[in-house]
Amino acid sequence: MDVARAFHRALNDSNLDAIAELYHPQCIVEHVWIDSHDVVEGRESVRNRWAHDLAQFHGALAGGHRVDVTRVAGIETGWGWVRSEWVQSVTPTAGGATRDTVGYSHFWVEDGLIRRHRTISKDVDRSVAAAVRPPSERRYPTRPLVGIGAVVLSDAGQVLLVKRRQEPLAGQWSLPGGMLEIGETLEAGVQREIEEETGLVVSVGPVVEAFDRILLDDTGQVRYHFVLIDYLCRVRGGTLLSGSDVSAAEFVNPDALEPYRMTAKAEDVIRKAFRITIPAP
Description:
By secondary structure, this protein is α+β, with helices and mostly antiparallel strands. It contains 5 helices and 14 strands.
């Protein structure tokens, strides 16, 4: 699955060398390129075909990305197959209408390289991309729930804070984030939550910290039990707003957190994030 994720990162970076290096020398690639149903064999031939595709189209998503990956999962065939699901948006470099596509790719990974790669996709109207998501049952869970959060940094070195509208932490300032959904990758969950809560589109970087949060009620029963994973992120698009589950969102200087009365843990995560360096998107 790491190989599939690396492929999509390289594609979003338009990094031809990185894309080519992920393929096996005797690879077979089927129906992958825009406006083409070619079947191409061999790394060098595949590299040339990707060079043509990258020259013909550029990404139309926030930050110039071509694809947003919604799921990466293994397929139980015993042959090393991985499936990624994604939304793609590109614009012809020569001019013309933006193309919005949904689809999935199958990767057969052998010895850490893509031996076979094939794609199924269809063009869609951008307005149909939004999906109805069922609510998560958070109170009195039967097992720990996975939450994802983010230390989102601006180019000016400020950190993004949100004021919670719902429990837990209703009315308090904290880092943006929420619950991971079934079948959703950690990175996709972070991107979705940040966009829903703040209107911003982010690039997801390394993990800052993973920890648990267990809250009891007056009788000693577990009301909330979260396993939380916070990522370091950079803004690559969107407009800052107060979206779902938050009543306010703003960027704050890291040395001016005291008036926001955040939890000690949140402040500690922010300090750790500023000790990690990631490139701007």
